[in-house]
């Protein structure tokens, strides 16, 4: 092919398009206003004109740059503008062009117009650049504001508007012409808070020409555009956003009604730099969503489906954190990322009904359904033949759900009101993003109609089980979808409709379409542990939601009792749910296959099985599930549990579920010993409930025990009008079997849980309940024979009394003592009155005499009075009319305990000790003198052996005290020679205790008395502090130890340092007070301790500490425990009343609690700050019952004669006795 000739034939111009070369403009430094005027003077030489404009631009760049700003340049510009300012003589008069506004900068305007005539793009671009910079500078100079306003008005003249429109409509390739013009318009509209915004918008045919096109011009460079060289789209968007900020609502609504402009705003938002995206989102939120004067229709047009989809695309925004895309002039720093900012905006737009995107909908009733009208239609044809009926009689007729034409219409398609949100949802990827999942669930909560529609439309949504992040995301999304609450009245307004919602829609909300029976069965049988666990959780929440839906159906049926539509719908919902959920045998197999170590999985599976029985019993009862073996296994695991407390809580939850299943199962055998179980299931369960800690919710276990005991006639039913959650008999059995630290005989502490195999009391109780359950008629007849036909007590009481003589025949003294103690407690707390229990008591004593080998010790123990702490437990369940038994010799003493009345009736099932959670003082065993010798030095402190020996210094026997002192001396020497980390501090503590004790024992006045309890208590608690260098009192304890070698035995160590001095650390005050109160509580044991407290005025100091209004509830509860402990000591109540003003303090506390309770009802407050995690926070409402009970207890245990003489009957009036 021949080479193309460079020139056309006949010497014409070349056919090639000439290369466009943009030469860099020249400039010169401007030194005076005259020079600037000469440079900007109109000249037809556009090269020279461009030179002058470029020189002016350089000057304005310096003025707009704070780092290079020069006062001389500012003065020069001021002089130029003043000299070229139009005269005021022509203000208001029309010029040659018919314009009334004066013409500012005429030379520049003439140059712009001439350049347009000559098609010189360089000058047409330079003029807007100069004007934009000039307006930006003048907008910050207050006294130049009139000139700047005149320049802006000059731009609104006809000729200038045509030039602006020409620049804006230039070719897309001429961004260097378009961008400066947009910047100039933005500076003009933002000047002085939008002073010319209205006239600028009135000229929108010129100023807003090609705006949608300019906003659609893509940035063609690599990466993200530089903030200093913004593209035409960026400038167009910023001009549009400035218009939204400064235009009045009517103009703003008209601007937003332009579909092309709104669409162009977010068309390429994913490719915009971060600062521009922030500006778009912020402006839409502040000036569109929050503008209450903006019409609702404008917001709807702005946030249409296309806009929502594009904003949702910002979840995958890729330009966050790019340095070149950051704005240097941003007035605020964005702490959130672009995706988070867009997420917040979408949440607000999609879930707020006042914006307009979220439309009113009818919940589970699809669009076009009129439930009340549908019912009327079905009944009209039926009653048309009976014209004499009243209008309301059609309610008695029921055509059934089959006659409602739309009831089965929505199985494959559900019309919705929220079409914009419906277009958005398919574009979300909630399985791959937590924020998108949150947006989806929030939309479901705001518009429940979309749940069924979404999963019907997503036909490609598969839930085939496989281990992948996508499947886990699907599972989490489905789980959150099921958790969406059912709308009130199923979405109908104000009340239940006469016709229920379509069954398919209801079930789709309870169990979404992807969770079919086939899929769930595969998930349950999957080899991995994760997938079956997710499937179990999905079934659990779906059944809970099904229960709520059925409850609402029953409520609606009560509202329309003459129609059966809701009842029929309830049956349909259950049937449809059962067709979709897996068979119960699949869940049973999954539960059987779970290992014992999978605690969460086993608990969740047992909960699902329980829900089968409770929600869909027709399915559960057809499945063969023998729960007994699993129940026995869990009982054994709970009984022998040695793991963490959290694991035990989970096991107890599993046990509760199995107990519920056992209650529903008709074949459960409660009183037959299974293989591998030490006792009957009833006794084993009773032991679990009896020995459970106070922080566990075991109400279900209690209810099951009570139900089984009444059904098997172990206990008699409560009299009419006195029914309660727990019968008196069960409460007595539990109270008498609870572990205790000591009994009235001074036996050793035994806080460890007792085994069913080795404990004689539990073996005896198990034997009695089994015998009574197998033959209740026998014991009922024996009771009637003994009481002349009166049901004075429970059959179980008769069985215990009858079997006691057979147990004690070969019993050793310790076993007899334990059985006697149990019997004393049980007879004190059991059901029955004084007259009814006297024959039982006589029967037991006579039987003991007939048994030749029965120890005399048994009868002597039965005659002893019950401790006060046990007598008060009788208020757990005993009725108000039950009185304490009295008698001589073989009857229980009640000299200090009266029947419950007045304030005592404030308790139903929790006694004062139960509310205060009082534990008996620790009893120290003399066997500790020999146990510590074989232990390493570390265990002496950490395992409490040292504290056990220290406690023996309080023994009543002087020999034991001296032996303890010798052992402490040897222990201190051994610890000092060991490698224990804190050996020096522990040795110093023990040495000072030894020296102080020696002085106490050698003093003739104190040699025969035990070491004061507060010294022993302080030493034991100080050992715990020294073990932990991070303890808040570590510094104070060490300071005390270094203060001197001997302690003052009548003084209380560290009390003044903690109460009156500041804490060691800023946030440790309440922790120090808690430690102090614990140590003082353990110091209260004998009347001598009360005297020490009184002489040191400690009671007053403690009560003043408790008067702190910011005192935490657990700390104030500790002080109330101290008051209760003092009332148990002889003379303690009298001392508190007469010497410490305890009655006035408690009365004031009661009034304060009443005021605080009323305030909390109006404005709840959080009083649990500072309480460690996992610690049960006491209920403030309990104090309203504790304080009156304490007042009653103080009065009952004090010296009435002395108190009445001291107070002149004032105490009685305060207490109300």
From TrEMBL:
Any single GO BP term: maturation of 5.8S rRNA from tricistronic rRNA transcript (SSU-rRNA, 5.8S rRNA, LSU-rRNA)
Domain URB1 C-terminal positions: 948-1145
InterPro entries assigned: ARM-type_fold, HEAT_URB1, URB1, URB1_C, URB1_N
Positions of the UniProt region annotated as Disordered: 1-20, 874-904, 1154-1175
Biased amino acid composition, Polar residues: 1154-1168
Domain URB1 central HEAT repeat, residue spans: 665-831
Domain URB1 N-terminal, chain residue ranges per copy: 105-474
Gene Ontology CC: one annotated term: nucleolus
PANTHER family noted in UniProt: NUCLEOLAR PRE-RIBOSOMAL-ASSOCIATED PROTEIN 1, NUCLEOLAR PRERIBOSOMAL-ASSOCIATED PROTEIN 1
Protein's name in the database: Nucleolar pre-ribosomal-associated protein 1 C-terminal domain-containing protein
Species of provenance: Sporothrix schenckii (strain ATCC 58251 / de Perez 2211183) (Rose-picker's disease fungus)
């Amino acid at each position: 092919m021949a080479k193309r000739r460079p020139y056309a034939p006949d010497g014409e111009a070349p056919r090639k398009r000439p290369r466009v070369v943009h030469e860099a403009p020249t400039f010169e430094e401007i030194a005076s206003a005259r020079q600037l005027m000469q440079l900007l003077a109109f000249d037809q030489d556009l090269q020279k004109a461009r030179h002058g404009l470029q020189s002016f631009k350089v000057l304005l760049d310096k003025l707009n740059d704070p780092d290079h700003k020069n006062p001389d340049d500012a003065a020069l510009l001021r002089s130029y503008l003043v000299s070229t300012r139009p005269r005021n003589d022509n203000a208001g008069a029309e010029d040659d062009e018919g314009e009334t506004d004066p013409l500012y900068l005429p030379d520049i305007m003439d140059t712009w117009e001439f350049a347009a005539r000559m098609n010189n793009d360089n000058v047409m671009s330079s003029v807007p650049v100069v004007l934009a910079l000039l307006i930006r500078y003048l907008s910050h100079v207050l006294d130049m504001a009139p000139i700047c306003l005149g320049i802006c008005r000059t731009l609104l003249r006809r000729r200038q508007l045509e030039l602006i429109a020409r620049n804006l409509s230039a070719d897309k390739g001429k961004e260097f012409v378009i961008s400066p013009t947009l910047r100039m318009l933005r500076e003009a509209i933002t000047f002085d808070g939008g002073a010319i915004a209205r006239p600028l918008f009135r000229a929108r045919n010129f100023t807003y020409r090609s705006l949608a096109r300019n906003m659609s011009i893509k940035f063609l460079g690599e990466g993200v555009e530089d903030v200093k060289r913004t593209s035409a789209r960026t400038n167009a968007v910023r001009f549009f956003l400035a218009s939204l900020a400064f235009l009045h609502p009517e103009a703003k609504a008209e601007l937003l009604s332009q579909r092309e402009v709104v669409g162009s705003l977010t068309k390429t938002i994913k490719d915009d730099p971060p600062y521009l995206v922030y500006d778009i989102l912020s402006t839409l939120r502040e000036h569109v969503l929050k503008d209450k004067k903006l019409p609702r229709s404008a917001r709807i047009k702005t946030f249409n489906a296309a806009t929502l989809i594009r904003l949702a695309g910002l979840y995958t925004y890729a330009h966050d954190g790019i340095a070149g895309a950051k704005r240097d002039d941003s007035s605020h720093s964005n702490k959130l990322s672009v995706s988070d900012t867009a997420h917040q905006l979408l949440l607000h737009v999609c879930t707020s009904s006042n914006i307009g995107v979220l439309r009113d909908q009818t919940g589970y009733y699809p669009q076009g359904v009129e439930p009340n009208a549908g019912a009327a239609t079905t009944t009209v044809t039926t009653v048309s033949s009976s014209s004499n009926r009243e209008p309301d009689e059609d309610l008695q007729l029921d055509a059934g759900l089959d006659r409602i034409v739309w009831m089965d219409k929505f199985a494959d398609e559900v019309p919705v009101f929220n079409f914009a949100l419906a277009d958005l949802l398919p574009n979300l990827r909630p399985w791959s993003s937590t924020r998108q999942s949150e947006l989806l669930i929030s939309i479901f909560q705001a518009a429940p109609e979309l749940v069924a529609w979404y999963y019907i439309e997503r036909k490609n949504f598969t839930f085939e089980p496989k281990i992948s992040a996508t499947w886990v995301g699907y599972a989490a999304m489905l789980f959150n979808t099921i958790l969406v609450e059912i709308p009130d009245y199923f979405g109908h307004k104000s009340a239940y409709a006469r016709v229920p919602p379509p069954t398919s829609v209801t079930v789709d909300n309870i169990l979404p379409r992807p969770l079919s029976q086939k899929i769930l069965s595969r998930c349950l049988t999957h080899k991995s542990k994760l997938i079956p666990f997710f499937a179990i959780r999905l079934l659990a929440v779906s059944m809970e939601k099904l229960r709520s839906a059925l409850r609402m159906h029953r409520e609606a049926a009560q509202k329309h009792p003459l129609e059966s539509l809701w009842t029929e719908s309830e049956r349909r919902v259950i049937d449809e749910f059962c067709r979709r959920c897996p068979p119960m045998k699949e869940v049973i197999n999954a539960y059987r296959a779970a290992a014992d170590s999978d605690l969460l999985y086993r608990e969740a599976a047992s909960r699902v099985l329980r829900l089968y029985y409770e929600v869909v019993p027709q399915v559960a009862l057809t499945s063969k599930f023998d729960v007994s073996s699993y129940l026995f296994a869990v009982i054994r695991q709970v009984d022998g549990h040695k793991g963490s407390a959290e694991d035990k809580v989970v096991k107890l939850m599993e046990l509760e579920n199995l107990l519920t299943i056992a209650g529903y199962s008709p074949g459960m055998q409660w009183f037959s010993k299974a293989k591998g179980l030490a006792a009957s299931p009833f006794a084993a369960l009773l032991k679990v409930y009896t020995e459970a800690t106070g922080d566990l919710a075991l109400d279900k276990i209690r209810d099951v025990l009570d139900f089984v005991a009444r059904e098997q006639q172990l206990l008699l039913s409560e009299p009419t009008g006195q029914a309660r959650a727990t019968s008196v008999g069960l409460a007595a059995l539990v109270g008498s079997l609870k572990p205790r630290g000591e009994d009235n005989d001074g036996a050793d502490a035994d806080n460890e849980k007792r085994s069913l195999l080795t404990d004689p009391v539990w073996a005896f109780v198990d034997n009695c309940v089994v015998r009574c359950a197998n033959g209740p008629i026998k014991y009922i007849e024996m009771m009637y024979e003994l009481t002349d036909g009166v049901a004075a007590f429970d059959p179980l009481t008769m069985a215990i009394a009858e079997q006691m003589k057979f147990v004690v025949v070969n019993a050793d003294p310790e076993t007899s003592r334990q059985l006697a103690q149990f019997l004393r407690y049980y007879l004190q707390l059991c059901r029955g009155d004084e007259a009814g229990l006297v024959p039982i008591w006589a029967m037991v004593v006579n039987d003991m005499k007939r048994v030749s080998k029965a120890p005399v010790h048994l009868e002597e123990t039965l005659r002893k009075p019950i401790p006060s702490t046990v007598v008060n437990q009788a208020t757990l369940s005993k009725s108000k009319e039950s009185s304490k038994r009295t008698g001589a010799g073989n009857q229980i003493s009640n000299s200090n305990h009266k029947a419950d009345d007045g304030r005592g009736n404030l308790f139903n099932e929790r006694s004062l000790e139960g509310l205060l959670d009082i534990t008996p003082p620790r009893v120290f065993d003399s066997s500790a003198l020999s146990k510590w010798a074989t232990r390493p030095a570390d265990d002496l402190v950490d395992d409490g052996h040292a504290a056990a020996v220290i406690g023996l210094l309080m023994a009543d026997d002087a020999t034991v005290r001296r032996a303890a002192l010798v052992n402490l001396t040897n222990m201190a020497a051994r610890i000092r020679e060991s490698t224990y980390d804190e050996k020096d501090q522990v040795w110093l503590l023990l040495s000072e205790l030894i020296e102080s004790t020696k002085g106490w024992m050698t003093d003739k006045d104190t040699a025969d008395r035990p070491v004061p309890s507060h010294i022993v208590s302080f030493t034991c608690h100080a050992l715990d502090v020294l073990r932990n260098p991070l303890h808040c009192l570590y510094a104070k304890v060490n300071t005390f130890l270094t203060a001197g070698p001997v302690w003052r035995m009548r003084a209380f160590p560290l009390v003044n340092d903690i109460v009156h001095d500041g804490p060691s650390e800023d946030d440790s005050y309440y922790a120090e007070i808690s430690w102090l109160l614990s140590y003082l509580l353990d110091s209260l044991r004998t009347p001598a301790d009360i005297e020490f407290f009184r002489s040191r005025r400690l009671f007053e100091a403690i009560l003043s500490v408790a008067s702190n209004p910011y005192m935490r509830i657990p700390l104030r509860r500790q002080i109330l425990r101290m008051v209760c402990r003092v009332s148990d000591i002889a003379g303690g109540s009298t001392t508190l009343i007469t010497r410490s003003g305890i009655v006035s303090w408690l009365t004031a506390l009661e009034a304060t609690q009443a005021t605080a309770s009323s305030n909390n009802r109006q404005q709840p407050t959080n009083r649990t700050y500072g309480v460690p995690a996992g610690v049960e926070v006491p209920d403030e409402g309990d104090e309203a019952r504790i304080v009156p009970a304490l007042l009653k207890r103080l009065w009952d245990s004090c010296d009435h004669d002395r108190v009445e003489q001291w107070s002149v009957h004032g105490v009685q009036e305060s207490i109300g006795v």
